[in-house]
Amino acid sequence: MSVPAFNHYGVWAIYRFEIARALRTVMQSVLTPVITTSLYFVVFGAAIGSRMSQVNGVPYGAFIVPGLIMLSLFTESLSNASFGIYFPKFTGTIYELLSAPVSPLEIVLAYVGAAATKSIVLGLIILGTASLFVPLQILHPLWMIAFLVLTAATFSLFGFIIGIWAKGFEHLQFIPMLIVTPLTFLGGAFYSIDMLPPAWRTVTLFNPVVYLISGFRWSFFERSDVSVGVSLAITLGFFFLCLAVVGYIFKTGYRLKN
Fold it and tell me: Is a pLDDT exceeding 60 seen at residue 53?
């Protein structure tokens, strides 16, 4: 039995459409993270940094940069991917997509790839903005890029799942606002979990966001709250879990065919 050829034209068409949708609001997409990042540095860098000069030997202003990037990466990946697949459901064009000569893998690759691309660009913009406020040195640039791409792809997959699960626009914001954002703030984005009392530190270690932020911060400063190997393993585990859920959705047609 012959293996069907990869439909790169179909993947490129969906990918280009999603990127074009983002480019229509490019000024908003660029200005928003720049302004938000600047405000974080004014509030956290100036107000808190003046009282806490260093964390684990790293200047506090530089210490919060990986957390800022991860916070934006999580939220943007989720919102881009969830809205990207939900809108065809909302308008009814999802049936045309499902009947088109593109496989489920190609559909996921196009939507998740577009969402991850936008999130990675946003992360690099925030990194460039942060470098205007504090001196930054990335000790492991390849690891930084690897964590950036893997996290963007993982949360874009998660957002894709949310977009299929959602029954209304309010559902698209439910998990990002009420679950992911609080976990990020409680996951060491702006502080080291070693600063917490032992009991709270143990509880925090059950927060999966800790491992994502910790691994990404290690690529900058070689300082982390948990082992970089554990961080990478947790991130890969979450990626494959999301991949398995997406496979189940297409296999069963969950909220796609009815």
Answer: yes
DSSP letters spanning 124-186: HHHHHHHTTTS----S-HHHHHHHHHHHHHHHHHHHHHHHHH-SSHHHHHHHIIIIIHHHHHT
Closest CA to 16 of 72, 84, 96: 84
Contact assessment for residue 230 and residue 208, using Cβ atoms and an 8 Å cutoff: no
Start-end of H helices in 166-227 = 169-175, 181-185, 198-204, 208-221
pTM of the model: 0.90
Q: What is the rounded CA–CA span in Å between residue 90 and residue 205?
A: 38
Contact between 67 and 221 under an 8 Å Cβ cutoff? The reply is: no
- Tens-place pLDDT, residues 219-256: 999 988 899 999 999 999 999 999 999 999 988 888 87
